[in-house]
């Protein structure tokens, strides 16, 4: 194994990583580097390759091209054929379905990885109790997993993943089997646990709020590629593409056309604002929820019709379509309840609009 002294504080990195199933490319060239003690979320829609990337880091799959390094050591390299199996990578894994052994006690489950490593009984017992204490389950060591709730079972899986004090912990949608309330509580707990243990973690999820809550860096993936890799703050403030903005639900995405010195929504007659002569013919924009103030329909407002609305804690979040450009859907936050079919006038703060360089549209 090669030690890269320049990369000592890089906990995990990939270079030109590709994975093909036969002729089908699933990952098309992934370059990431994650610092010690940091959490990286892999976020993206179903089938974009998140789990495949995690499995390549874990050593459950070998790359078709490129390499994976952990703590400066190459653990897989397609060119040389070098491949370290999972048990040689010093990592912990937590899966969606907990993967606990039903015939063993909670304590037995947690101590199993230590037993596999040949660690003696006394040390196993003290480390197991310590790991269970860390997840708040020391009183449950003698119980069977089936006696525990879903949230408690997932904590047992986390205790089992940290008991060996791994340098890296991999989470594959660990909360997706829990109901919404428990999931929301556990996101915060997990973030706290990861921080207090100083873990380096990779966390796969398709839930943007989980990713933005937990991670220091978020890789938004699409079609086997990373579309944007950035901190949560940067992603929200500066989504690189309309697709990223749409996936993070930052607001409404629209395509504008420059005609007669005005920016119109698509090829409709609904104008948003004046345009400079000579500016590009077509641009995609993000109109954040915070840029729109809803009110009565009147002359200087963009008229829209409510499609659906949901209460979300601080108001009613409605999806509206523009009258005269009904392919454009925007998100509006309203104090009053809006019902499907209601007419609403939108005051749009043009200063908050984000203009994208490209002219791609997320809903072809
Ligand atoms: N063994 C396999 N053989 C062929 N194709 C596969 C295999 N495993 C995964 N794929 C394909 O690879 C692509 C990426 O799968 P992957 O599980 O990494 O996606 P994902 O982003 O994690 O999605 P999800 O959130 O649904 O788990 C998918 O199109 C999937 O159908």
TrEMBL record:
Q: Which PROSITE patterns match?
A: ABC_TRANSPORTER_1 (PS00211), ABC_TRANSPORTER_2 (PS50893)
CDD domains (UniProt xref): ABC_Carb_Solutes_like
Going by the UniProt record, its keywords in alphabetical order are: ATP-binding, Cell membrane, Ion transport, Iron, Iron transport, Membrane, Nucleotide-binding, Transport
* Pfam families assigned to the protein according to its UniProt record, in alphabetical order: ABC_tran (PF00005)
Return the InterPro entries for the record: AAA+_ATPase (IPR003593), ABC_SmlMolc_Importer (IPR050093), ABC_transporter-like_ATP-bd (IPR003439), ABC_transporter-like_CS (IPR017871), ABC_transpr_FbpC (IPR015853), P-loop_NTPase (IPR027417)
Q: Which domain of life is it from?
A: Bacteria
Keyword presence, Ion transport:
yes
Which GO biological process annotations does it have?
A: quaternary ammonium group transport
* ABC transporter domain segment(s): 1-248
A cellular component annotation (GO) from this entry: membrane
Q: Give one GO molecular function term.
A: ATP hydrolysis activity
Write out the similarity annotation.
Belongs to the ABC transporter superfamily.
Q: What is this protein called?
A: Iron(III) transport system ATP-binding protein
Q: Which species is this record about?
A: Aliirhizobium cellulosilyticum
């Amino acid at each position: 194994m090669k030690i890269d002294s320049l990369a000592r504080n890089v906990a995990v990195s990939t270079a030109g990583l590709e994975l093909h199933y036969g002729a089908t490319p699933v990952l098309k060239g992934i370059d990431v580097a994650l610092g010690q003690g940091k959490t990286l979320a892999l976020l993206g829609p179903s089938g974009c390759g998140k789990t495949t990337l995690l499995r390549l880091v874990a050593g459950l799959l070998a790359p078709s091209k490129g390499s994976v390094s952990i703590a400066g050591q190459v653990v897989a390299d397609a060119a040389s054929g070098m491949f370290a199996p999972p048990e040689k990578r010093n990592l912990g894994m937590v899966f969606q379905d907990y993967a606990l052994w039903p015939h063993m006690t909670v304590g037995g489950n947690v101590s199993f990885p230590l037993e596999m490593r040949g660690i003696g009984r006394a040390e196993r017992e003290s480390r197991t109790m310590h790991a269970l204490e860390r997840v708040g389950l020391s009183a449950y060591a003698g119980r069977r997993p089936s006696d525990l709730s879903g949230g408690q079972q997932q904590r047992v899986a986390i205790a089992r993943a940290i008991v060996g004090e791994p340098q890296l912990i991999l989470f594959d949608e660990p909360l997706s089997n829990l109901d919404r309330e428990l999931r929301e509580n556990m996101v915060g707990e997990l973030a706290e646990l990861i921080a207090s243990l100083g873990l380096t973690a990779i966390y796969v999820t398709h839930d943007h709020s989980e990713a933005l809550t937990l991670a220091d860096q978020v890789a938004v993936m699409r079609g086997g590629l990373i579309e944007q890799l950035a901190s949560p703050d940067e992603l929200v403030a500066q989504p690189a593409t309309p697709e990223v903005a749409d996936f993070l639900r930052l607001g409404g995405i629209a395509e504008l056309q420059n005609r007669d010195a005005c920016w119109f929504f698509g090829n409709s007659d609904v104008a948003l604002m004046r345009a400079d002569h000579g500016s590009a013919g077509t641009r995609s924009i993000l109109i954040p929820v915070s840029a729109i103030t809803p009110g009565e329909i009147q002359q200087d407002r963009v008229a829209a019709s409510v499609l659906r609305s949901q209460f979300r804690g601080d108001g009613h979040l409605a999806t509206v379509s523009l009258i005269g450009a009904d392919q454009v859907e925007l998100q509006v936050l309203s104090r009053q309840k809006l019902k499907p079919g209601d007419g609403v006038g939108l005051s749009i703060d043009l200063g908050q609009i984000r203009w994208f360089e490209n002219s791609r549209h997320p809903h072809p």
